[in-house]
Amino acid sequence: MANQIALPLYEKIPRKNTLQRVFDILIFFLLLSLLIYRFLFLKNHGLTWFLAFLCESWFTYTWALVISTKWNPVDYKTHPDRLLQRVPELPSVDMFVTTADPVLEPPLITVNTVLSLLAIDYPVHKLACYVSDDGCSPITYYSLVEASKFAKLWVPFCKKFNIHVRAPFRYFSSNPQTFGGSSSDFHQEWKRMKDEYERLSRKIEDAVQKSVPSDFTGDFAEFSNIERKNHPAIIKVIWENKTSLPDGLPHLIYISREKRPKHLHHYKAGAMNVLARVSGLMTNAPYMLNVDCDMFVNNPKTALHAMCPLLGSKSENKIAFSQFPQVFYDGLKDDPYGNQMVVLFKYMGHGIAGLQGPFYSGTGCFHSRKVIYGLSPDDVDSVNEKTANNILSNFGSSKELIKSGANALKGKTDSPLNLSNSIQASYQVSGSGYEYGTSWGTKVGWKYGSTAEDAHTGLMIHKRGWRSAFLSPNPPAFLGCAPSGGPSAATQQKRWVTGLLEILFSKSCPIFATLFGELQFRQCLAYLWILMWGLRSIPELCYAALPAYCLITNSHFLPKVQEPTVYVPTAIFVIYNVYTLLEYLRAGQSIRAWWNNQRMSRINTVNAWLFGFLSVILKLLGISETVFEVTQKDQSSDDASDAEAGRFTFNESPIFLPGTTILVVHLTALVVSLLKLQPPARDGHGSGLGEVFCSVYLVLCFWPFLKGLFGKGRHGIPSSTICKSTALALLFVYFCRRVAIG
How many Cα atoms sit within 13 Å of 355 on the Cβ side? Predict the structure, then answer.
């Protein structure tokens, strides 16, 4: 027993990556060689050479950031069995679920996430589930009330038969013997649970179709005559666990914060801060889990895994949060939209874990309440009166919240005996004007000023010197749904890039966090790698236009085939593609998945990322504000056998205009080259095989857009977009001709 107590709760195991380092360094030196060659011969070439030099300088800089981030990958191995022996009483956990739109985020999805949380393997009396409904939807509230009735059957069933998958929609879509047992008793219970869940689903779907769940009387009276963006706070304790029975239910609380037209509500970050304040008054757990409404618990021991690094004797004053990777269920075969991020998390995610720790990704994350309240690592062991007062002075006017905050900072987390006793104070801290004159959103809680509140909050935590842990248990802790359409995927990418650039161009820039805070240098480089995603759109767009420009004007930006230096860009292209292909194959992905991600990288960069960049520029110029756009959630992906599954979809959004224009420009350039319509080459150095190859490669990358030119319905590019793109392409050709004549 003594030996067991002495064993660590988690291990940080370095990965071997010698081959990866060799490839990384080789590509880096080839890029440097190309830059040196460009620089030495700048005077002998024109504008295209100079533009290529600038773009390739950016690519080299980006690759240096990638090398630094991936250089020291680690795996975290947790030991929940040791945790149960080491810690006599596990700490409480407040679980937060956020939803914002009952149409884009159907209530049945939210309900399944909540049910999976209520059923996790953790002491029931130590759990509380809070659902933030920023859509203030009576249907969402009704769905949660009905779900709580089903949960009284579902949770004991899961605990009794040790069910592994505890989101009902996912569990009942599988063979019962796969997730439970084969006894007659189990089969009877399974049939009963399935019937009850189908009844629950029908009730919720009927309510959705009617738009209102019932008459606005009784429990629903507060939802009558409300507007989504103009309503008082609504807080309801749907279920309170007063008995603390092992097979009981955790607390379940519904929150819709107050919203008024003249008050900023700060999107998801504002909702998270209201959840932090209300939960602080009601249960005041020392740890908080937050998940998006579509990310259900897939591993019932998730909370135990998360507690291992948070409670490890040497790390309790170092690790601020445990982050699980985003993993998606029923993803379309071969990742046609390039948004399942399997390889990104496998290599970049584990590489960042070897630095100061992973970024906070907004879902699937366990936070320490002390850290969210603003405590630094140096103060966590003994919070003196001065430190506590400095933090609590920014909490606002609620005496009850200040008292609960003081208890949280000092490690005293006794929650009220009756949740209803905290309702009145909870309404106060949920008010739209409560945060005025406080430090919520700046020094305390989730950070404001960016639509990527997750990366912003995580960066500020790392700035104070905290570390974070990246946990990848088997099976995955959480599963969610990836956007399954062109417009949805583009909207998500645009929102991410917009928020990341807002951080980069603010006082929270990681460079300042390193110079004036405790952010480690290589962690700063990792943050710069992700925050600069939007900036990549400019050099990539410029580089994508160069082959077409050269073909139309009969100039060149690549060395000629007969020149020895042509082997440098050729080697970069070949080695990089072979290297990335090997990464995908080692991650269990197919060659088709690799290609889909390569082309979607080009498509996202010149479409969604470009619009994200422009949005931030308009904000910086004071012309317009950025907007948080909710991504469409869909519980079931398209059937892989369906002929339409994975086909790219379009809509009237201008976000598809740049990609369509690039395609039309390159098709035009290839026709000009094929029909020999180019002007005479200057100095005898016209366009060559390299420019033709690059142009063909880009057409292949934008193949979904080429099919969209001739497609119909949602699979076709709207005629208005095609007309605008054609006009822009003709302008580009006219510009090229004028330059050639000049």
Answer: 23
Residue 227 has what DSSP assignment?
Answer: B
Q: Dihedrals φ, ψ of 186, to 5°?
A: -65, -45
Any catalytic annotation for residue 683?
no
User: Are 546 and 669 spatial neighbours (Cβ–Cβ below 8 Å)?
Assistant: no
Residues that constitute the known binding site for UDP-alpha-D-glucose? 105, 134
Backbone φ and ψ for 373, nearest 5 degrees, come out as -75, -10
DSSP string of 503-568, one letter each residue:
HHTSTT-HHHHHHHSS--HHHHHHHHHHHTTGGGHHHHHHHHHHHHHHHHHT--SS--TTSGGGHH
What pLDDT shows up at residue 213? 65
Q: Which residue has the tokens 């292949």?
A: 700
Partner residues linked to 617 by β-bridges: none
Catalytic residue among 134, 294, 334, 379: 134
* The two three-digit tokens of residue 710, written as one number: 């001739």
294 is catalytic: no
Cα 314 to Cα 311: distance, rounded to the nearest angstrom: 8
Alpha carbon distance 403, 399 (integer Å):
6
Q: Of these residues, 24, 94, 334, 454, which one is catalytic?
A: 454
pLDDT at residue number 639: 44
For the chain, what is the largest distance between any 2 Cα atoms, rounded to a whole number of angstroms?
89
Question: What's residue 638's pLDDT?
Answer: 43
Given a contact cutoff of 8 angstroms between Cβ atoms, the answer to whether 31 and 56 are in contact is yes
Element of type H or E holding 380: none
Distance between alpha carbon 452 and the CA centroid of its chain, in Å? 9
Residue 364 and residue 477 in contact, taking contact as beta carbons nearer than 8 Å = yes
Q: What is 403-430 written as a DSSP string?
A: HHHHHHHTT--PPPS-GGGGHHHHHHHT
> Which 3-state string (H, E, C) describes 100-166?
CCCCCCCHHHHHHHHHHHHCCCCCHHHEEEEEEECCCCHHHHHHHHHHHHHHHHHHHHHHHHCCCCC
CA distance 471 to 323: 6
Question: What are φ and ψ of residue 562, in 5° steps?
Answer: -80, -10
Secondary structure element (H or E) that encloses residue 69, with its range = helix 47-70
For position 14, what pLDDT does the model report?
A: 95
Q: Point out the annotated binding site.
A: 105, 134, 268, 292
**What number of CA atoms fall less than 13 Å from residue 594's CA on the CB side?**
16
DSSP for residue 319? E
What pLDDT sits at residue 560?
Answer: 84
pLDDT digits (tens, 9 = 90+) for 74-130: 999 999 999 988 888 899 999 999 999 998 899 999 999 999 999 999 999 999 999
**φ and ψ at 251, to 5 degrees?**
-60, 145
Contact 472, 326 (CB under 8 A): no
Of the candidates 558, 474, 476, 698, the one whose C-alpha atom is nearest the C-alpha of residue 56 is: 558
The bridge status of strand 287-292 relative to strand 365-368 is antiparallel
| Alpha-carbon span 86 to 7, nearest angstrom | 9
683: left (phi over 0), alpha (psi -120 to 50) or beta: left
Contacts of 178 (CB under 8 A, 6+ apart): none
pLDDT, residue 415, reads: 63
d(CA 246, CA 122): 9
- Return the closest-CA partner of residue 58 out of 615, 520, 541, 698: 541
Name the burial class of residue 358, with classes exposed (0-12), middle (13-18) and buried (19+) by CB atoms within 10 angstroms of its CB. Answer: buried
Q: Is 116 exposed, middle or buried (0-12, 13-18, 19+ CB in 10 A)?
A: buried
- Flag residues of the chain having pLDDT under 50: 1, 637-641
At position 710, the amino acid (one-letter code) is F
Which DSSP string do the residues of 248-279 spell out, in sequence order? S--EEEEEE--B-TTS---HHHHHHHHHHHHH
Q: Output the six-digit token pair for 61.
A: 């800089």
Please give the Cα distance from 284 to 275 (Å, whole number): 11
For residues 228 and 432, give the distance between their C-alpha atoms in angstroms, rounded to a whole number. 14
3-state secondary structure of 695: helix
